[in-house]
Amino acid sequence: MLCGAESDPLLSLCLRQEVVHVVGPKPRPPDPRLLELRQQRITELRARYRDLREELEQTKQHLMLEPQQWTAEFELQPPAELDSLEYLEALEMATFKLETRVNFCKAHLMMVTCFDVSSKRR
Question: Is the separation of the CB atoms in 51 and 102 below 8 Å?
Fold first, then answer.
């Protein structure tokens, strides 16, 4: 005994088209140029991120702040893929936030040192 799809060729054709539609076409492989640009951007951002981390540590020392302050705030989770778009976006966001914090700390340091009248007394 045949079920409905096997007995009706039109229904069988429609079901196959639905399966193709649900599964969809195979995704195209990413463009090698875009991958190369993404990897280059990630490399640049990693270097910038590392430099900003060092600069933040130095600035915290000058401001006599706790060494562990703001440390966890700028930690990046290890990515599943180092060249993924999600990692690039997370790295850009973390670098931006870190740069903002470093600039704030440096401005605060300038305010503290410029208006420190105790060292200018004679």
Answer: no
Indicate whether 20 pLDDT > 50.
no
Q: Give the global pTM.
A: 0.65
Report the share of the chain in percent with pLDDT over 70. Answer: 69
Kindly list the domain boundaries of the chain, sorted by start residue. Answer: 31-114
For 32-64, the DSSP string reads HHHHHHHHHHHHHHHHHHHHHHHHHHHHHHHTT
Whether 109 and 59 have beta carbons less than 8 Å apart is answered as yes
**Amino acid (one-letter) located at 36:** E
CA 43-48-53 angle, to 5 degrees, is 125
Q: Are 53 and 102 in contact, with CB atoms under 8 Å apart?
A: no
